[in-house]
Amino acid sequence: MSDGFSNLRARVVNAWDAVMERRRAGTQAPGSQPTGDVGVSRRGVVRIILGVLVFLVLYYPVGMIWYQSIDDDANLQPAPEYVVPGGSKAVATVATMISREADHWAPNMPFWHPAAALDNMPNFQLGEVYAVSRFAVELGDYLGRVRGSSSIDPNLDEAAGLFKYDGRTWYWGQGNIIPTAKAESQYRRGVDALMRYNRDVAAGKTVYDRRADNLIAFLDRVAADLGSASATLDAHAKLGTGYFDMTSDDVFYDVKGKMYGYYLILRDLGDDFSGVIEQKNATLIWQNMLESLREGAEMRPLIVANGKQDSMLVPSHLSALGFHLLRARTQIREIGDSLQK
């Protein structure tokens, strides 16, 4: 058997040598000396280098265009798998929104992924999660307990902690050696915790206290957050740097994400607390407040410009967004006054 393998090996080697000899003969000029595979190798290296350069030139721009998705659908409704009859519609909508974003999460992409070069989409998503984290905290502190005297629901406590997780966290990159959990996986766990709570509400095992004072407490928190966002917008708008500003779009989309998140939450809290709102004759001002939030959340300029407020040529998109934000904040305060009467 060993002789058979030796003969087969010898035949293969001879055939290979013959092929290479013909190849060398075909690439030689008449009268020239054999040059081996040097020319062929050089051409191959050049082709590889050119291919890599073309790939790198196209990889990030095309990948960014493909991955970019700022989903500000103001008509988003709870997905069927998150609808719980007898539960909170606002909780179901939050679960739908976060699940959608977690499936296409951008803020923590590593440098070799095209989405790592994006900034508008990541800031929008971080703004959304911030609004949801505030909602989860208020659920645990007020809406999900009896007048604040009972213990916090364990599912709400878990959800509030998970939604505070740094959205820029990937397996590595936070100074850790041991891999850690990605942000989107933590947010999915937060959604699971919210849905356990919502099912318990429907089953009568836990509390979702639809009282006016609980709604007022949440509205106060939203108004405070919007006030902080308006201060950030104002600080950047005063710079008046026009189109040559690398941070204004980050601020714009972060605040836009917060307004979008709060719009969806408050829209469906209006359904959850419809009895209280109607009883206090606050339906009209509630709808006006939602419209103000929606107008800001749906702003999408082609290029975010930070012009001076009296400029004739360069708009100030930060100021325009701030107008809708402050109008919504004022209306939220008016709703709070109406609910206290």
Proportion of β residues? under 5%
Specify the overall morphology. globular
Please compute the radius of gyration using only Cα atoms. Answer: 30 Å
Which residues form runs of ≥5 with pLDDT under 50? none
Q: What is the tally of beta strands?
A: 0
Description:
This protein has helices spanning 2-27, 38-67, 89-102, 120-143, 154-163, 183-202, 212-237, 248-272, 274-279, 283-297, 317-340. It has 341 residues and is mainly alpha-helical. It has one domain. The longest helix is centred in the N-terminal third of the chain and has 30 residues, at 38-67. It is globular. The mean pLDDT is 86.
Structural features:
0% strand, mainly alpha, globular, 11 helices, 341 residues
Produce a short descriptive summary.
By secondary structure, the chain is mainly alpha-helical. It has helices at residues 2-27, 38-67, 89-102, 120-143, 154-163, 183-202, 212-237, 248-272, 274-279, 283-297, 317-340.
Layout of secondary structure:
Elements: H1 2-27, H2 38-67, H3 89-102, H4 120-143, H5 154-163, H6 183-202, H7 212-237, H8 248-272, H9 274-279, H10 283-297, H11 317-340
Helix pairs in contact: 3-6, 3-8, 4-5, 4-7, 4-8, 5-6, 7-8, 7-11, 8-10, 8-11, 10-11
